[in-house]
Amino acid sequence: MADFSGSSPSPSRPSAVAVLYGLIVSLCTALVGILIVASALSWTPLSERSLPYLTFTIHVLAVVVGALWAARMAGERGWYYGTITGLGYALTVTILALTSAEVTWSPAAFIQGVLLVVIGTFGGVIGVNLKRG
């Protein structure tokens, strides 16, 4: 018999709670990464030329961790929740970047956004297969 109680999410509508938690975890992970890189730039002879690579690495780690979290929390359709979380992170970072006065839009930025969504998909696939404690 079909369950019409509304307790399980439909494929067309993601569990907003899982995606929201994944997005929050992604943003917190990025914040920690930014603080670590800023400290390293201040207290070590690390060159600012490495900043674009470090920034993209932070974004990748943030999306993977957030997608893992969201998919594990949802317990199903990891690719779906990972993709939505990666897309949400990419859009959030883009909106935050647009508030800066020195932002220039480029095809490379679009490609990085697409890569973050794809990476989120893989993170979600891995996350849904992790055992829940």
Automatic annotation (TrEMBL):
Superkingdom of this protein's organism: Bacteria
Record keywords: Membrane, Transmembrane, Transmembrane helix
Transmembrane segments: 20-41, 53-71, 78-98, 110-130
NCBIfam families cross-referenced by the UniProt entry: TIGR04086_membr
Protein name per UniProt: TIGR04086 family membrane protein
Biological source species: Kyrpidia spormannii
